[in-house]
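Intended use. Records such as the Pantothenate synthetase entry shown here are meant for training and evaluating sequence-to-structure methods. They are not intended to support clinical decisions.
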Amino acid sequence: MQTINHITHLREAVDDLREQGKIALVPTMGALHDGHLTLVREAKKYAPHVVVSIFVNPTQFGPNEDLDAYPRQLERDKALLESEGVALLWAPDGAEMYPGGFATSITVAGVSEGLCGASRPGHFDGVATVVCKLFNQVRPDVALFGEKDWQQLAVIRRMARDLDLILPHAGNIIGIPTVRESDGLAMSSRNAYLSPANRQAAARLNQAMREAIARIERGEDVAATLAWLEQQLLAAGFASVDYASLADAESLALLPGTPQRPARLLVAARIGQTRLIDNMAVEARI
Ligand code: PAF
């Protein structure tokens, strides 16, 4: 596996790979876990050459968020990617990604405004901008993202459609189902922050969401079910719930009643100092 830190070297390496076949990109912020490695394994089904990027993107962190504390484990990550047969690791530093004078930001209206966009102002501008740059730097045929960050995936697809991106085309932005721990907790680099007691309580998030989905799919009142879900999380030891919402799976418009189209239940909640997110499909009643 080649590890590259400079854009000029990246361009040469990508040109060489491209001569030999298609490229799939898995963008990450490192601190890799099985969720990321699943993306790498899935990527191999789409292209012979897998490029992984590791860049802890400062522009997607708010002033009071965990940028400094975000886990950084480059040597461990490299060994994992090597053992997965990754062709190239793109690991620029902040100055390479955002050279002096950098002044551009991409805002994707609508889909980035509610849910995490409401509680993390500017977060999705940072994500859309860095992902657009990563796409232009690597020019992958296919890019893969975890469905755990459902809103992020919707924002990136919207951006690719709206900006007529070619590599990758919006249709080649692939979402991969969330990888979960044995008790249902969605894998996340931030799970490492949880104390043992909070880690145990965090499992209630997925259980309560599944129970809420069963209620909604049975036709029970949506607002009452979301309020019940919030109560369940607070009773389990969560400190606060940023949102527990039912939304259209694609536009992320909030749904007040039983869904008539594919929908998603999305939750963000804080336990200790850690903010967890999760989302799951809700079947439409037609
Ligand atoms: O999901 C992530 O790890 C990040 O938001 C991403 C897509 C790599 C952009 O920094």
